[in-house]
UniProtKB/TrEMBL annotation:
Domain annotation SIS: ranges: 38-179, 212-354
Alphabetical keyword list: Aminotransferase, Cytoplasm, Glutamine amidotransferase, Repeat, Transferase
Subcellular location: Cytoplasm
Gene assigned in the entry: glmS
Protein name: Glutamine--fructose-6-phosphate aminotransferase [isomerizing]
Quaternary state and interactors: Homodimer.
Annotated organism of origin: Sphingobium tyrosinilyticum
UniProt EC number: 2.6.1.16
Part of the whole protein covered: 244 to 607 of 607
Chemical reaction(s) catalysed: D-fructose 6-phosphate + L-glutamine = D-glucosamine 6-phosphate + L-glutamate
Amino acid sequence: SKGNHRHYMLKEIYEQPVVVAQTLKSYLQRMEDRVSLPIPDFDLGTIRRVTIVACGTSYYAGMVAKYWIEQFARVPVDIDVASEFRYRAPVMEDGGLMIVISQSGETADTLAALRYARAEGQKIAAVVNVPTSTMAREADLLLPTHAGPEIGVASTKAFTCQLAVLAAFAANLARAKGRLDAKAEKELVRHLSEAPAALNGALAYDESIEDMAHLVAGARDVLYLGRGPDYPLALEGALKLKEISYIHAEGYAAGEMKHGPIALIDDKVPVIVLAPSGPLFEKTVSNMQEVQARGGKVILISDYDGVQAAGEGCIATITMPKVHPLIAPMIYAVPVQLLAYHVAVAKGTDVDQPRNLAKSVTVE
Ligand code: F6R
C-alpha cells in the first residue's frame, strides 16, 4: 500500500534511508570495518576487465560504478546500454567480468547481453532487485539489492540500492587487487555507513523542493549539469523529469556545455546544477557561471558550503547534507527525484503510471 503517501513513487523515495541501510547491511561488516560480498569465495583477484550493461536508470547506476571501480580498483571498465551492446559484436577478452544491473532482472536487452557475454566466456555478476528473476538465476555472482518491491514505474529506491551494492563491489574488487589497505577500507566503510542518515537529511528538503516546483513546471526544456560521478546523476535527473512530467530535459557533463548546448541557454530554460563539495566543485561552478552569464536561470544543488560559495545569482538553491564525494551520487539522487515528482504533481500527470511506459521491458 501507499501508506499515507499520495503516490507509490513518493513512498518509495521516502523508503530510501531504510532500504539502503538494509542493502548495505548485507555488504558491510561494520564491526570489523570490512566490506564483504555475499559470496566470499568468488575470486575477484583474477578479473582483468569489467563490462557493465544495463538500461535506463540502471544504466546510470552503472555509469557511477565505472568511476568507482576505475578509481579504487584500477580495473578498466567498459559500459554500454544493453540495446547497443548486444548488436555491436563487442570484443570480450579472457578474465572479464560482466556486471548486469536490473531492478526487474527481466529486461530483454540486458538479458540478451548477459547471454552474449556468457557465450564469450565471461563471468557474470548480476545486481538485481528481484532475487527470483531470470538474471539472478543465470548469474555466477548474485549481488542483490534489498529495495523491496518497486511499484512506481519511475525507478527510485532501486537506483540508490544499486549504487550501494556497486560501491561495496568496487571496494571488494579494490581489496582483491591489493589496492585497498585496512585503513582505507575502514574509511570507505565509514563513509558508506553514513549514507542512510544523509539520505534522511536529503529528504528533509522535500517541502522546499515542492515550493520551487513552479520554477520548472512551466518550462519547455530543462538542462541538468554534473561532473564526474555526479554526471550520471544529471542524466538520471533529466530522465526522471521526462518520464513523469513530460517536460523535455537533457543531462550534460558540465564541461560539455561550451561545446554546443550552451546555445540553448536563455531565461526560459531552467538549468539544474549538481555540485557537491569536492575535487570537481570549482570546475562545475565555473560552468554554471558561464550559463548565468548568458541569462540562464540556475537551480544549484550543493551542500551548505557550496551554496554559500556559489549560490548567489541562482534562482533557487537546494542544500544537501555535506557528504564524502563517494556517497554524493546516492544522496543527490533524492533532490532530483523529488523535483521531478513535485513538478509532475504540479502538472497533474499520472505519476505512478506515466503514459507509454511499462515497469518491466521484456520485449526488445
Ligand atoms: C526509469 C526506469 C527505466 C528502467 C529501465 C531498466 O525510471 O524505470 O529506465 O530503469 O527500463 O529496467 P530494469 O532495471 O528493470 O532492467
